[in-house]
Design brief:
Ribosomal Protein L22, Chain A, 4-stranded mixed sheet, 7 helices, 32% helix, globular
Length: 247
């Protein structure tokens, strides 16, 4: 199974029964980074200045700038006029303009994902699959017992990819819920199937029915996943060729 990342139409809109995920590279020319910088709010400028390395600062600026442009597209608002609010656990939401648009974003190294929907919670995660991080001890510490058993039951050469499938699905669910570290990663269980993501067990039985997971395939070296509240939705995946395409 693979994800079709399509070029978006100029007038892209989200239907009530759709979830959109955008894939973008955080590399950009200095002129584009500068343009996106001036879309950010003062608190975002302050956050950017706190990064020690220019590479990390640039990734933050491009990621937040693209988020503003995309939110502006969906809400017909100037990107620089958008204001974000944050939950007690740090999950961002659109405060201005008033809207039912929900979103979540994630990045790993030079790749970023942005998820959007109307009136339903969404969460997304992406991780560069580094074999040195796919450690059995990390799995035993953070994964549910059933996930650890499923992971160790795989051939050794398949465990690294399965580790990151599990990790991204769990992170996407946690981010969609918006509860941060108050929801322990071992308090729920997800499938490790490469082509089908499923929430197998949660603290409350109705959670399994309430949430759907989907694997994403943004790049062969990356694992990614999406968590969406409710059912009856269709996934559309867009590829953002570069910041200049969102002028």
């Amino acid at each position: 199974m693979s994800t079709d990342w399509l070029a978006p139409p100029p007038d892209v809109t989200i239907g009530a029964d759709e979830v959109h995920v955008w894939r973008a590279v955080l590399q950009a020319r200095p002129s584009e980074v500068s343009r996106l910088w001036w879309l950010l709010s003062e608190d975002e400028h302050e956050r950017a200045r706190r990064f020690r390395f220019e590479r990390d600062r640039r990734r933050f600026v491009v990621g937040r700038g693209l988020l503003r442009v995309l939110v502006g597209r969906y809400t017909a608002s100037p990107p620089e006029a958008i204001r974000f609010s944050y939950s007690a656990h740090g999950k961002p939401a659109v405060a201005e303009p008033p809207t039912s648009l929900t979103f979540n974003l994630a990045h790993s190294e030079e790749w970023a994902l942005f998820a959007f929907a109307w009136g339903r919670r969404v969460g997304v995660d992406i991780e560069h699959m580094r074999s040195d991080l796919a450690d059995e001890q990390i799995a035993r510490r953070f994964f549910a017992p059933g996930e650890v058993q499923a992971l160790l039951g795989l051939p050794a050469d398949q465990r690294s990819a399965a580790f990151f499938r599990c990790w991204t699905r769990k992170e996407a669910f946690v981010k969609a819920r918006g509860e941060g570290l108050s929801l322990p990663l071992d308090a729920f269980e997800v499938s490790l199937d490469p082509d089908a993501a499923t929430l197998l067990r949660a603290a409350e039985p109705d959670e399994v029915r309430r949430w759907q997971l989907a694997p994403l395939f943004p790049h062969p070296a990356y694992a990614a996943a999406l968590a969406v509240e409710g059912d009856g939705w269709q996934l559309r995946c867009w590829h953002l060729a570069g910041p200049e395409t969102l002028r």
